[in-house]
Design a protein that fits this description.
It is built from 2 helices and 8 strands, in the order ααββββββββ. With about 120 residues, it is an alpha+beta fold. It has a single domain (about 25-120), classed as Lipocalin.
Length: about 120
């Protein structure tokens, strides 16, 4: 009987640890946004992650002069060990992001402001 209880306790501990270390792809689905301010402009970058492992990256710059510059590109994404890799249509890597404990997304190689999730739906895209 004691062996059964010890086994159950071990099983519960082992299963709870593995769940904490694994990030579910459903957490990623939605719209993520990052805003950057400079003296002359405001930039908004968005990453839209769809459930079919596709997505859209947008960038909009609003300058104090009134000029607006924007771009959009599509990507495919893959989640592996808490790292999200974005690839283009020709399979070249566009960037690798990490999901931190606060559920923010940041580029691995660059120290920049993180993306914050602003919506769980992608219906607008």
């Amino acid at each position: 009987m004691k062996k059964s209880i010890y086994f159950l306790v071990f099983l519960l501990i082992a299963s709870s640890c593995s769940k904490e270390e694994t990030i579910d792809a459903k957490v990623l689905i939605g719209i993520w946004e990052r805003t950057s301010l400079t003296e002359n402009s405001t930039s908004v970058d968005k990453l839209v992650f769809k459930s079919d492992n596709s997505g859209i990256k947008t960038h909009t710059e609003n300058h104090k002069s009134g000029e607006v510059v924007s771009s959009a590109s599509d990507f495919k994404w893959n989640l592996n060990d808490g790292m999200v890799t974005l690839t283009s249509g020709d399979n070249s890597t566009l960037g690798t992001y990490v999901i931190n404990i606060e559920n923010e997304i940041s580029l691995v190689a660059i120290n920049e402001s993180p993306y914050i999730k602003v919506s769980n739906t992608v219906l607008d895209y």
